[in-house]
Amino acid sequence: MNDDNMNKNKDDLWIKSMMESVKKEPTENLSYRIMHQIETEQAFSRAKPKLSKQKDNSLVDLRNVFGLMYLVLLITGGYFFLQGGKEALFTNSFLWTCITIGSIFSVFFLIITIDNSLRNKQKNKSSTSE
Fold first, then answer.
1. Rounded to whole angstroms, how far apart are CA atoms 81 and 89?
2. Which of 23, 87, 101, 112 measures 20 to 30 Å from 40, CA to CA?
3. Contacts of 80 (CB under 8 A, 6+ apart)
4. For residue 1, pLDDT beyond 60
5. What confidence score (pLDDT) does residue 49 get?
6. Radius of gyration over alpha carbons of the chain, in Å?
């Protein structure tokens, strides 16, 4: 058993000496380039992307969503006006179409507001844990 350990140690030493004989050292230029790459990656990873304050502002979302809603209502009103004249704008069909469009955009705004709120909570939670 002792012989086996001695042979194993000799084999390990022989393998180690063989590995050291073929081992290559990097050139100074290669070491410099690798270190430069590591420093560059660290510099980029430290810089956190800043979100524009416009995305966090719910008033901007309100303006965008309801501005688009009024545009759609204007186009719908123009369509009804071209199809039936001034009287078509006073029909129940046009009224219910406007209510439906307003409701859809209101729900869309609600979804956007909830999503932004959840993202802000998650962002604050992750920034405090770091």
1. 6
2. 23
3. 88, 89, 91, 93, 94, 97
4. no
5. 55
6. 35
